Amino acid sequence: MNKPENLAPTAGSDGTAPFYIAATASFQELWPRTLKHGDTFAMFDEHGDILNAAQNPAGIFHEDTRYLSGCYLLIEGHRPLLLSSTVHDDNAVLTADLANPDIYRDGELALSRETLHLVRTKFLWDGACYERIAVQNFDSQPHRTRLLLWFAADFADLFEVRGLHRPRRGACHAERCASDRAMFHYKGLDGVDRYTQLRFAPTPSLLDQHHAAFDIVLGPGERTSLFVTMTFGASARIGGEKFLPAFRAARKSLRAKARDAAAISTSNDLLNQVLCRSVADLYMLVTKTPQGPYPYAGIPWFSTAFGRDGIIAALQMLWLDPGIAHGVLQFLAAHQAKEFDAQAEAEPGKILHEIRRGEMARLGEVPFRHYYGSVDSTPLFVLLAGKYFERTGDRETVAALWPNILAALEWIDRYGDIDGDGFVEYSQKRADGLSNQGWKDSKDSISHADGSLAGGPIALCEVQAYVFAAKRLTSKLARALGDQPRADALAQQAESMRKRFEEIFWCAEIDSYALALDGDKKPCRVRSSNAGHALFGGIASSARARRLAAILMRRDAFSGWGIRTLNTGEKRYNPMSYHNGSVWPHDNALIALGLARYGLKESVLKIFSGLFDAVHYMDMRLPELFCGFPRRPGSGPTLYPVACAPQAWASGTPLSLIEASLGMTLDHAKSEIRFDRPLLPTFVNDVQIRNLALGDGKIDLLLQRHGRDVVVDILDRSADIRVVTIS
Q1: What backbone phi and psi angles, to 5 degrees, belong to 27?
Q2: Which of 130, 205, 499, 613 is the Cys-Cys partner for 215 at CB 3.0 to 4.6 Å?
Q3: Which pLDDT tens digit goes with each residue over 473-500?
């Protein structure tokens, strides 16, 4: 995705790349409290406030626009004392426990600290933010006080928040429109009216465009509650349900999302916390679309549909909940390009890179309104369709998607292979688009051994592996649909590509596959994590897979926490960079799945252990990425300042590590669950998987470690599902 680039449409005078994310403060200094529902997300501080939005992405965002840029609570002009703050385990609700500080009036102590207890409860639902402020007096004497809520809306486009300066903006005004209501209105340059509406109950003692004051008198032990409803959208009508009905609906909606998913628990309480957090984050990011559920990529920068990210998250969740893959396939098929559009970098059959709905995208100030500038989304789409069919046997869905799959294959062969050499390449189609169009899309992420940047068209190592896997899987689909000639042709194409890939991409001098081929067909002889994706796609020979695994596990590649994107000896190595030496959890997850494919389970466990140790320092949530500095005794990993958290494919990483360690495959055609040489790390004695669906049945399993062996027991099953262990 277009993550690391400077948010000016062309390169800046300081040499930064287009769409670079400006960093004036680290997210890790803030540890924001994050909520999301649908196309709305919020980032609060630990008090539940929105402060310093000019320096960070705090606020409430809806469809790529910040509809609330400031909101904080004061008690008689003072900020309350923080007692505790937490987002509930299901990510539905933020609760902040606060207390009054010492309050003086006319030089005299009028209210001793921690006399009044305040509980702020906030959640998002259906384009609105709901808040209840409960206040209780724990003194034996009555007390009066004033609570003041300040609020503001700047309607900044998300790309402005990321650092882009705009010479012109639309017009914004605020007004008090009733005794209990205030409103902000922004008339965008795109002609769209955007409104933030605020409704208060009970009616405030004082209300203007930016302040609501409540004068409260509480007897001993007495409690009262204030309610604020904020709605966001293109309508001036103030809507929104009352607090309790909306609260119940929000919790019910989250439970319903995961209704059909398997449940997983282990003997390790900390790992259980990580798994619980990961699954909750994934289902928070999953967004209802007309085509089905779709995991948005991450908060704050990427809370929208990205092709590559959605596909990989669906692959990670496939064993747990194949319904997510169904939604992703349907959504991407509906948005598949049908014609040429140079501005969108679209060609017939190509799969979407991202969608944006903000003012700047609508005006073309950024190119991402409906953007197709990724080279890997299309083969990954085909790959996911094949994996989905193996997992579910859903012939009806695959048959309906068959024209989309064939169109994607046609794009791969006709438009993806620009020069007809049998490899899929990319080249930048518009000056302000993405210069690199694989998952490492920084401007400096594809280079030669001497550090010089590769010129296009560029054929990435991992993309060839995805194409190989896609064609092999589609061969099986064609056979299942009765098209044997096409099945044979695709199998032959895949084998031919495998041989050519081994011949051209393998670099014996670095014991690895080249990062890429440049426009002159010169290999980029650089040791990078990209080569590990050749294992994920299955294109590597067994002998070379073992040699590559040894390289990936060396200290110059493996930091102690995970595999770096670029090895330490390479010219462009920088452990603090976005793609040239950092550690990405999802990258490690795909490599781990690839290692498992080749039976290299000790390397899988090394990755699993490194990331598990790392997440202890990360609030039990793996971020988008972290820095690639070597592991030091007694210290945690170095965090990346503007990494998204949660990020869908980072949240999916623990699920992939479980799958890889156990060598787990679910085969619908055979009604069989296979565990190929299962292993568990030493910090896990057993894993229990419940409600695991296959075909029309469900099964509960217990996997127990005995030394190096793992024993599989069936606890319960509702159909004739076979369980096979390969030692």
Answers
A1: -55, -30
A2: 205
A3: 999 999 999 999 999 999 999 999 999 9
